[in-house]
Amino acid sequence: MEVTYYGQSCVAFDFNGSCVLLDPFITYNPLAKDIDVNVLKPDYIFLTHCHEDHVADMKNIQSNSGATVVAVVETAAWVRKQGVPDDKVIEYNFGGTLSLPFGKVKMVYALHTNSTPEGDYAGVPVGYVFFVGGKKIYFAGDTALTLEMKLLDDLQLNWAFLPIGGHYTMDVDDAIKAAQFVNCKNIIGVHYNTFPPIRIDMEEAKQKFEANGLDLHLPKIGESIAL
User: Tens digits of per-residue pLDDT, 115-161?
Assistant: First the structure.
């Protein structure tokens, strides 16, 4: 079981042979210029919300792969409008848990905004908790620090993917609090460095996490980490 980072908030999980891609934004990210989206063949694409820096490559990758796209109800409606067949879209909502061939996925709260690239209403942003092969992985999506994260405290998460760039989401200091709220020591940072407002000092970020007894992983774009 491993994860590959593709920049911004885009990651691909290899769940023992099932490929699950989240928030595909690669083609328009200059930091990910060496990644060829045409070779990505996920079985599932999960969207946390519908902002362009999370969905820009959704249709291209879905068309190339035949992936099933999963999202909150209103974002899923936008996915259908892009021409994704209805039988390749799964919509659900807070409190829901999907049972899929690779495991289960629970939709959880995220504090952010949500609209389509065209500026239309797209429901609410979300996060996900993946339950796969005895491991529990939290993908927060774009979010501010929120007390709802404490609801995950007793899950004994193995990994948490948290935004750390600030400005549009949590910054490093709030992400440290978030890690404490969800009771997880192994953190992979996302949503940083892509644009000037979210650039961070990576070494300083790692030091701050370490000072709080946390392990912050900042993989290079295209790099994989065993989970």
Answer: 999 999 999 999 999 999 999 999 999 999 999 999 999 999 999 99
Distance from C-alpha of 192 to C-alpha of 92, rounded to nearest angstrom: 28
Residues 140-153, buried b or exposed e (16+ Cβ, 10 A)? bbbbebbeebeebe
List b or e across 86-105, with b for residues whose CB sees 16 or more CB atoms inside 10 angstroms. Answer: eebbbbbeeeeebebebbeb
pLDDT average, residue stretch 192-217:
98
Distance from chain centroid for Cα 192: 13
Cβ neighbors of 205 (< 8 A, separation 6 or more) are: 164, 172, 189, 216, 218
Paired with 46 in beta bridges are 22, 70
pLDDT in tens, 21-43: 999 999 999 999 999 999 999 99
- How distant is the alpha carbon of residue 95 from its chain centre? 18
Predicted TM-score (pTM) above 0.90? yes
Integer Cα distance of 79 and 72 in angstroms: 10
Residue 129: count other Cβ atoms within 10 Å of its Cβ: 20
